[in-house]
Amino acid sequence: MTLDQLGAAVGKPAPYLSLLENGKKEPRVNLVLELAAALDVEIAELLDPGPPNRRDALEIALIRSQETALFDSLDLPSIKPSARLDNETLAHLVGLHEALRERSNLASAGSQEVRRANGEVSAWLASHDGYLEEVEQEAKRALDSSGYEGEGPFSSRNLLDLAARAGFEIHPIDDMPAFARSIVDLDLRRVYIAQRDELRTRQARKAILQTLAGFLLGHERDPDLDTFLRQRVETAYFAAAVLAPENAVVMRLTSAKDNHDIDVEDVKELFYLSYEMAAWRTANIATRHLGIRTHVIASDRMGKVVKAYANDDAPIPHDDHGGMETQSLCKRWGARVTFQSAERYGTHHQFTDTPAGTFFCTTHVEAGRDPAHAITLGVGFGDARWFRGRDTENRETSTCPDPVCCRVPPARLAAKWSDKVIVSARSQSRILGLLAPDPYPDLDMPEVLALMEAHSKS
Q1: Class of domain 270-397 as given by CATH
Q2: For residues 329 and 319, is the Cβ–Cβ distance under 8 A?
Q3: What is the pLDDT of residues 448-457, one digit of tens each?
Q4: Cα–Cα 20 to 30 A to 251, which of 57, 145, 175, 283?
Q5: Mind giving me the DSSP string for 126-179?
Q6: Per-residue pLDDT tens for 373-408?
Q7: How many whole angstroms from its chain centre is CA 399?
């Protein structure tokens, strides 16, 4: 079969297929399926990543280095690896690109650089009103290929079918390293996840979908820091968009808005999600389809922000780069008040008056999570009328960032007690955090590769 004949069968031009054939372009999953069918071969035969020789390997490496977001940020012209480019020069260029990538990734980034990149990703998500159209479209294609019928939760059968369509098998194992969400064997096309007794069903579905998302969305394998953080948002978004499909969520939330009865709990129960994922999915949809601006906060017992998003001007504290993660919430916010309320493990509704206006929020502490996280979905006062719980009598006033609000003791108590109190603080965790050389858990690659070798024989 000539390239022209194959191109006619799959709807692609011959020059493009030539690039695929030589490993200089990577096709999307659907095209791989079409090529395998047209050539009457197994998918695995088309996915052997090994280049024919060293020259080809160098050419592929240079081309891929120039297709990254990091290279785009340099504003440099691309270099075509033609025959006039000798092997020594080609190897030199590839080496420079690899060194630049290593110095620009998460492992080598300092705290300020991570904060800068995180702030830019937060601004990027807010600029899209929390809605990522390209990821939604890819999620719809994934749903279509999985056999999902459009109603109710995305089933385990759907998930296995989706993985198969992407050319992977799912293998639960009982020796998954604690630092890994999943491990992918590209040779055997397997995705390893923890056994169900170690990983609950909701977590397992999310772990598998986030792993597949990298392939389906065409993510770079060794991204720079900025791209890594953006891809992280996209994989989480993709998992939520598959587990709670856009059309079904929009239908449910539109009906709830018509009845002035929007509640995260309904999305959670209907699609069998965690409360956190349901809150984020509601925020994804709210502005684009309902005209409601929102904020979402995941925070710990002490009010430290673990994850957040806002496009409703809620006065969530942020660092100099605009990121909200690691910042401390005001003690008057529902995310803090709920830990002292009788509704701690129910749903806490609250209005909070702030210098930026009044905000309504719904907060839920997810049971069984260690450490406990409070998940908050909030809106401005004018949009509270669409939500269940708006009749609450819970109301607080926050004047933060004014320190008198909650960060310094009242003058009367300070005068009475300041010289009479000594606090012995828990300091070991903070000291270890300051001593830690990396901002994320170490990946024990010897353990990973030993695991891959053991399971490849089963």
Answers
A1: alpha beta
A2: no
A3: 778 888 888 8
A4: 145
A5: HHTTT--HHHHHHHHHHHHHHT--SSS---HHHHHHHHHHTT-EEEEES---TT
A6: 999 999 999 999 999 999 999 999 999 999 888 888
A7: 32
